[in-house]
């Protein structure tokens, strides 16, 4: 099947993300990349766990002092919901419903921005309320690096999905861009997977002490 | 690729079948999303309620996280579909090595 | 129509290589750049041996010595050995599986340019205030206190080139999984392809921890973080773990492709199927897996505790088993074969005893209790040079002779090649064998000089003389290359006459689309199989048709250049230079801008039409 071909509702393949060789390669290559990213985040988690609450003296705040339930819960809900909306977008992509896909992707992006805004507010809050800055202690460095790496992934994911949406706004779906949308949504889910571990290991376990 | 077109003589029928499959799959995804939200609330609740000991909470919420990740991988990221043999092999190898690293950092770094 | 084969001017050729996405040209780029860094690293080694030739020498200062040993190790591992292996992987692996191209030609080019700019950045440190001086392992307790920008060059340079390696690894994996020719099942893949596969998988999982380690070090040194500042709650052991979680798999990433190269050579020049093919595959995969479970054996003396030491010691010794399987399989391949003594075969012969020496001392240092005695002495230096030089470098030299005709269409001179082998081989054992004893006698590694009368004088002199032999060998190889390319005598498809695998079924060098028609693979050693049935080449698996090829692109170069520029900004930002942050932003803008251009501009590639293929001569199968 040719990537540039104009397709209709009837001729659209069942798995557009894997219907050309290029798409198959992209699909597999991206999954492998996610395998590598797993080890990357594991290393960051390991570093965070071994530096958790390691501060120079008792004037510094520890994990149980700074994290709060409501903020984390709202952030989690935003990101989790954005995962569902991107699933909806892919559902419509498979059904060759371009407009609907774009709408759901748009909602995903909005939720992502919401999460990002909340994270910026959160970091700002820690810095001004608790003096918990990137350079204040090993614990703080490890916290900001782990959560910040995730935040940077969110940021990159937003830019990526937006670029895809803008680029393909006028031309609709074809077998050249369908795999791109699919892979971007995989990336978005992976960000959510990492977040599940972050809210559990960093925030909830942090609050427990 | 569970929703590969079947080789029936009428393409229209295949299409109908595929759409139905997609709808069914979407329903599974909504169910798993609901479960994930539910699990998240439980995890936050056991921490917020302050009635439980840390030795219960930590393994419990880690278990909930693991279940959520399985939902994400197998339903949202379609790893339950065919054609994901190589991806799952590499992803799980990555997860395993990641666990080894975390385990090592938790046990043999102490000063 | 032969527009593809037109003679080009010098400028056009350079532009061609700057923008190429052809895996065979990228292989040549890797070979040239890796070879250049190999010479630089070799020069540094010579300086080390001159300084240590006699006691109380003042050829270089103590500080300069630290820089030289650091750069020697870093250059040889990251900028010479890996890229040279990547050169062969790029040149040969797609041909061996019968593919027209790699899975991600663009990413492949990007990987090369990232490695190249990272390497250049690292080596610029010599001219910009001093090279890194905390050892190639750059332990945090030393590195965060290193003055000047040396360690910053190390951190940023390796970060950039590490991205390149990771991309290369993913590209090879997808190529092998998705793009094998019809009939090329996993268990029919040549051993070099198998070892490329396993090594690439290891790259995928080993480089992220290095990325994290380098990032933490960068944050500490350049942005005021406290990961390794003990007074602020930090912990320097984290670096050691992250480095070795990467570092130990890294040595297997180097040695497995070397095993692959020798497996091809043994089988080709014994003119016999590789003995125990499936056990070889199994051993390769097992070594790859175990390679991740042993990293802490580099840290026995940091005080991990007896339990951890015991676990890692046992795991390390376990690797001896699959390696032993391989050694015996090679011996049995030669047994009963009709052995032809070509230059590559000389190297293969020399490799077995040399590598076994390195393996045996490996088990010795793996014994945790005994390691307290060996640790940080020349015994360790001797050990890892026996595996890296006796394994990897011999394989690289063997591979150069073996695949030179395939890559360049000319045959290196066999007589010169054999002299090169003897010079290098004798030099290698002369240099490093005696270092075992220096270590046991108590000479610590990384010292810049020693006093007379400690019993080290003669042994160090012997070692330095050996280095001279090795240098002579390398110079002879360069001479051989120049002479060969000047004479420019072209060879045919199968210049060794005993080729077994698919790369020998197509012209040397291959046309840019590799296979006019994809070959039908009917078993292991696909070409040999056809030859034994009296056929001249492979049976095609498809009718002649249009071939889809990717477009050349300058974007990989730009993306890498952007990171190169950004690295300067990040580094000089600690000196409060006003231009530092703008430069950092400019560099990142170049990188992300180029990425954006790539993603916004459709690139569908082009087709070579059937009629053009019919007109081209010489391309069979």
Automatic annotation (TrEMBL), chain A:
Residues 1-207 form the Heme-copper oxidase subunit III family profile domain. It is a multi-pass membrane protein. The chain crosses the membrane at residues 28-51, 71-91, 103-121, 141-166, 186-206. It is found in: Cell membrane. InterPro entries: Cyt_c/ubiquinol_Oxase_su3 (IPR024791), Cyt_c_oxidase-like_su3 (IPR000298), Cyt_c_oxidase_su3-like_sf (IPR035973), Cyt_c_oxidase_su3_a-hlx (IPR013833), Ubiquinol_oxase_su3_dom (IPR033946). The keyword Zinc does not apply. Keywords: Cell membrane, Membrane, Transmembrane, Transmembrane helix. Belongs to the cytochrome c oxidase subunit 3 family. This is Cytochrome c oxidase subunit 3.
Automatic annotation (TrEMBL), chain B:
It is found in: Cell membrane. The keyword Secreted does not apply. It is a multi-pass membrane protein. The keyword Repeat does not apply. Its main location: membrane. The chain crosses the membrane at residues 30-49, 55-77, 89-110. Keywords: Cell membrane, Membrane, Transmembrane, Transmembrane helix. This is Cytochrome c oxidase subunit IVB. It comes from Neobacillus kokaensis. The gene is ctaF.
From TrEMBL, chain C:
Pathway: Energy metabolism; oxidative phosphorylation. Keywords: Cell membrane, Copper, Electron transport, Heme, Iron, Membrane, Metal-binding, Respiratory chain, Translocase, Transmembrane, Transmembrane helix, Transport. Its EC number is 7.1.1.9. Residues 9-522 form the Cytochrome oxidase subunit I profile domain. It is a multi-pass membrane protein. NCBIfam families: CtaD_CoxA. Belongs to the heme-copper respiratory oxidase family. This is Cytochrome c oxidase subunit 1.
């Amino acid at each position: 099947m040719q990537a540039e071909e104009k397709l209709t509702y009837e001729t659209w393949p069942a798995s557009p993300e894997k219907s050309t060789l290029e798409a198959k390669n992209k699909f597999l290559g991206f999954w492998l990349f996610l395998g590598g990213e797993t080890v990357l985040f594991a290393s960051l988690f390991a570093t965070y766990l071994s530096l958790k609450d390691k501060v120079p003296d008792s004037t510094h705040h520890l994990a149980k002092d700074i994290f709060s339930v409501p903020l984390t819960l709202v952030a989690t809900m935003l990101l989790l919901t954005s995962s569902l909306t991107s699933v909806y977008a892919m559902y419509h992509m498979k059904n060759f419903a371009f407009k609907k896909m774009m709408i759901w992707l748009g909602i995903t992006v909005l939720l992502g921005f919401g999460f990002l805004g909340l994270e910026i507010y959160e970091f700002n809050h820690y810095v001004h309320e608790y003096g918990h800055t990137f350079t204040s202690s090993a614990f703080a460095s490890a916290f900001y690096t782990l959560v910040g790496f995730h935040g940077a992934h969110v940021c990159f994911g937003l830019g990526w999905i937006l670029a895809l949406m803008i680029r393909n706004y006028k031309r609709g779906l074809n077998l050249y861009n369908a795999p791109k949308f699919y892979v971007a949504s995989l990336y978005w889910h992976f960000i959510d997977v990492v977040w599940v571990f972050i809210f559990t290991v960093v925030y909830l376990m942090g609050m427990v002490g | 690729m569970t929703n590969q077109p079947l080789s029936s003589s009428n393409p229209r029928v295949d299409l109908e079948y595929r759409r139905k499959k997609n709808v069914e799959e979407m329903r599974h995804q909504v169910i798993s999303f609901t479960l994930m939200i539910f699990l998240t609330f439980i995890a936050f609740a056991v921490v917020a309620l302050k009635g439980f000991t840390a030795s219960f909470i930590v393994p419990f919420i880690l278990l909930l996280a693991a279940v959520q990740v399985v939902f994400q991988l197998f339903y949202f990221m379609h790893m339950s579909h065919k054609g994901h043999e190589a991806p799952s092999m590499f992803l799980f190898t990555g997860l395993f090595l990641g666990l080894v690293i975390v385990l090592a950092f938790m046990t043999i770094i102490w000063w | 129509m032969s527009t593809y084969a037109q003679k080009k001017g010098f400028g056009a050729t350079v532009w061609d290589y700057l923008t190429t996405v052809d895996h065979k040209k990228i292989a040549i780029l890797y070979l040239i750049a890796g070879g250049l860094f190999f010479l630089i690293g070799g020069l540094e080694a010579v300086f080390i041996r001159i300084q240590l030739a006699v006691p109380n020498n003042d050829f270089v200062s103590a500080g300069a010595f630290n820089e030289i040993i650091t750069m020697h190790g870093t250059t040889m591992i990251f900028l010479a050995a890996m890229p040279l292996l990547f050169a062969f992987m790029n040149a040969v692996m797609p041909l061996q599986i019968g593919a027209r191209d790699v899975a991600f030609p663009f990413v492949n080019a990007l990987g090369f340019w990232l490695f190249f700019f990272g390497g250049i950045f690292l080596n610029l440190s010599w001219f910009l205030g001093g090279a890194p001086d905390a050892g190639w392992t750059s332990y945090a307790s030393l590195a965060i206190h290193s003055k000047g920008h040396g360690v910053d060059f190390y951190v940023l340079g390796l970060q950039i080139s590490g991205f390149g390696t990771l991309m290369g690894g993913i590209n090879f994996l997808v190529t092998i999984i998705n793009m094998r020719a019809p009939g090329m099942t996993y268990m029919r893949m040549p051993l070099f392809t198998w070892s490329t596969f396993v090594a690439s998988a290891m790259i995928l999982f080993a480089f992220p921890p290095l990325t994290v380690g380098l990032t933490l070090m960068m944050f500490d040194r350049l942005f005021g973080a406290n990961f390794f500042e003990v007074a602020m709650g930090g912990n320097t052991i984290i670096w050691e773990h992250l480095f070795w979680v990467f570092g130990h798999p890294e040595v297997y990433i180097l040695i497995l492709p070397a095993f692959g190269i020798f497996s091809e050579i043994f089988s080709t020049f014994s003119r016999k199927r590789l003995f125990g093919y499936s056990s070889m595959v199994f051993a390769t995969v097992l070594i790859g897996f175990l390679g991740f479970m042993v990293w802490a054996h580099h840290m026995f003396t940091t005080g991990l505790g007896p339990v951890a030491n015991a676990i890692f010691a046992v795991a390390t010794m376990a690797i001896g088993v699959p390696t032993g399987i391989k050694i015996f399989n090679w011996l049995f391949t030669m047994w009963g074969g009709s052995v032809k003594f070509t230059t590559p075969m000389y190297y293969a012969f020399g490799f077995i005893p040399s590598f076994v020496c390195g393996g045996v001392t490996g088990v010795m240092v793996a014994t945790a209790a005994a390691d307290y005695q060996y640790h940080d002495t020349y015994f360790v230096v001797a050990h890892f040079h026996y595996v890296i030089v006796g394994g990897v470098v011999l394989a690289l030299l063997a591979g150069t002779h073996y695949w030179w005709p395939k890559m360049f269409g000319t045959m290196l001179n066999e007589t010169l090649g054999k002299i090169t082998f003897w010079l290098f081989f004798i030099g290698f054992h002369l240099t490093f064998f005696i270092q075992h004893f220096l270590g046991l006698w108590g000479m610590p590694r990384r010292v810049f000089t020693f006093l007379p009368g400690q019993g080290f004088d003669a042994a160090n002199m012997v070692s330095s003389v050996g280095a001279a032999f090795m240098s002579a060998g390398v110079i002879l190889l360069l001479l051989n290359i120049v002479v060969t390319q000047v004479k420019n005598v072209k060879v045919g498809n199968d210049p060794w006459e005993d080729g077994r695998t698919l790369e020998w079924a197509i012209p040397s060098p291959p046309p840019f689309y590799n296979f006019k028609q994809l070959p039908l693979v009917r078993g292991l050693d696909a070409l040999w199989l056809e030859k034994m049935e009296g056929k001249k080449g492979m049976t095609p698996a498809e009718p002649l048709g249009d071939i889809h090829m990717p477009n050349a692109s300058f974007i990989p170069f730009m993306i890498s250049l952007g990171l190169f520029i950004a690295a300067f900004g990040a580094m000089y930002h600690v000196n409060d230079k006003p231009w530092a942050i703008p430069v950092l932003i400019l560099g990142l803008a170049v990188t992300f801008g180029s990425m954006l251009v790539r993603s916004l501009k459709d690139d569908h590639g082009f087709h070579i039409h059937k009629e053009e293929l019919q007109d081209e001569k010489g391309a069979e199968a």
